[in-house]
Design goal:
By secondary structure, the chain is α/β, with parallel strands linked by helices. Helix content is 37%, strand content 11%. The protein has a nine-stranded mixed sheet, with helices on one face.
Length: 386
C-alpha cells in the first residue's frame, strides 16, 4: 500500500508538472443493455458526444500528455463507433483500458481488440454461477455472454480482469469467483463499497454487506491485502493531515457522455464543458478542480480529528452524494475503516489496544443504511451544479 501511494504521488507530481492528468476515464455513453441492481449511474442517454467530438477530445488529451485512458459506459460497446474510438485512441498512443460487461465481444471484436493491445479489459462479473450473476444484471443469458467474452480474449492473450462489486447477494460467492478467474486465465478484483446513484437516490445502498459479512470479508477474503497495506498504520500516520484522501482532480479526472469534465467518474461535479472550453484550460484554470485539489485531511470535518484515519480509504464522491458535503466524512468509509482495523487487531497483526472509534460513530449504521438512523438524513437532490 505504501509503495502504491508513493507511485500515485509521483504520478500526481508528473501530472502537475506536465499540466495534465496521467489518467482519464472517458464515459462515452450512458446507454446500457443491462439494468444492474447496484448501478450508480442515471443512464440519461441524451445529447451525447458525436464521433467527431469524441475524436477531437482524444486529440486534446493526447496533446496534453495524458498516458492512461479508460473507456466505459453505460456499456461502452453500445456505441456504434466503439471500435473506431478504440482504434483512434490506440493510434494516438494511449495505454487503453476498457470497462464492459463483455456482452458485445464477439469473435470478430475479440480479434480487433487483440490488434490494439489494450492494457486490460475489465469484465463485470457478479457471480460464479448464472443465477447469482443474473440476479444482479436482470438479463437472462448474461453470465454466458460475459464468460464467453473472457475466454475469447484470454485465448488472444488480452489481459482480462474480472471486476466484482461486493454485495450481500454475492459475498458468499467471492472465493468461487476468484477460482473461476484463475481457471479462465484472468485476474480478479473485488470492490466492497456500493455507492448511491449519481442523483442521490440511496436505493443501491440497500445492497451493502451486513456488518457480519463485512467482518468476514476483511478478516478472510481480503486479509492478505489489508495486512500489506495497513499493518503499520498504528505506528505511523499513513494519512497525514497535509495530504489529500483522494487523487480526484490531482492526477485523474473523468469526461462524461455530454462532454462535461468531472474530478472523477464517481463524482458528478461538472468542473468544465468540453463543448465550450479546451481540456487544457479546464485542467489548468477550473475553479471546481482547484476546490477539489484543496481538500486535505486537515480541512475535512471530523476526519481531521479521527483517531483511526490511518486505516481509512475515504471517497470524496461518497461523502458528497450520500451526505451532501465533500468537506465532511463519508459514513460508509467510517464503517469500512473500523472493519479493516478490527480485522487487523482480531488477527493479532496490530496491538489489542487499537479500539478507538471515529467521531462519527454514533451516526454509522451497522448495515450501511446510515440515512435510516434518527440522526441520518438524505442529501439534497441538487448535486449537479456547474
Amino acid at each position: 500500500m505504501k509503495v502504491q501511494t508513493r507511485a500515485a504521488d509521483l504520478l500526481a507530481e508528473q501530472a502537475s508538472a506536465c499540466g495534465a492528468p496521467s489518467y482519464v476515464t472517458f464515459q462515452v455513453t450512458d446507454v446500457c443493455n443491462y439494468s444492474c441492481s447496484h448501478c450508480y449511474q442515471e443512464h440519461v442517454g441524451h445529447n451525447e458526444l458525436s464521433s467527431e467530438e469524441v475524436f477531437d477530445i482524444l486529440e486534446q488529451l493526447a496533446k496534453a500528455g495524458v498516458l492512461f485512458l479508460t473507456f466505459m459506459g453505460g456499456e461502452f460497446f453500445m456505441r456504434r463507433d466503439a471500435d473506431e474510438i478504440l482504434q483512434t485512441a490506440h493510434d494516438l498512443g494511449f495505454a487503453i483500458k476498457v470497462l464492459t460487461t463483455g456482452h458485445h465481444i464477439t469473435e470478430k471484436r475479440a480479434d480487433f481488440l487483440a490488434t490494439i493491445r489494450p492494457l486490460q479489459i475489465d469484465i463485470s462479473i457478479y457471480g460464479s454461477k448464472p443465477a447469482i450473476h443474473e440476479h444482479v444484471t436482470r438479463q437472462e443469458g448474461s453470465w454466458k455472454r460475459s464468460t464467453d467474452a473472457i475466454k475469447r480474449m484470454v485465448a488472444r492473450k488480452i489481459p482480462v480482469v474480472l471486476k466484482t462489486p461486493v454485495m450481500q447477494s454475492n459475498v458468499a460467492d467471492l472465493k468461487a469467483i476468484a477460482e473461476m478467474a484463475d481457471s479462465l486465465g484472468a485476474r480478479f478484483t473485488f470492490d466492497p463499497k456500493i455507492t448511491a446513484i449519481e442523483d442521490g437516490d440511496l436505493k443501491t445502498t440497500r445492497l451493502r454487506m451486513s456488518q457480519e459479512d463485512m467482518a468476514n470479508f476483511y478478516g478472510d477474503t481480503m486479509a492478505t491485502f489489508i495486512d500489506q497495506g495497513f499493518s503499520n498504520a498504528y505506528e505511523e500516520d499513513l494519512r497525514p493531515l497535509g495530504e489529500t484522501p483522494c487523487r480526484a482532480g490531482k492526477d485523474v479526472c473523468a469526461i462524461n457522455p455530454q462532454g462535461e469534465v468531472w474530478p472523477c467518474n464517481s463524482l458528478p461535479m461538472p468542473v468544465g464543458d468540453l463543448r465550450k472550453q479546451s481540456f487544457a484550460s479546464i485542467w489548468s484554470a477550473s475553479d471546481g478542480l482547484t476546490e477539489v485539489r484543496g481538500l486535505k485531511w486537515a480541512t475535512i470535518q471530523e476526519c481531521n480529528e479521527c483517531p483511526v484515519r490511518s486505516y481509512c480509504t475515504r471517497c470524496h464522491a461518497m461523502a458528497q452524494i450520500e451526505h451532501g458535503e465533500m468537506r465532511g466524512p463519508s459514513l460508509e468509509a467510517c464503517r469500512h475503516t473500523v472493519a479493516v482495523r478490527d480485522s487487523l487487531r482480531d488477527r493479532g497483526v496490530i496491538p489489542a489496544t487499537e479500539t478507538q472509534l471515529p467521531p462519527t460513530w454514533n451516526r454509522v449504521a451497522a448495515d450501511g443504511q446510515h440515512d435510516r438512523l434518527p440522526s441520518g438524513g438524505r442529501r439534497s437532490s441538487a448535486l449537479k451544479v456547474l
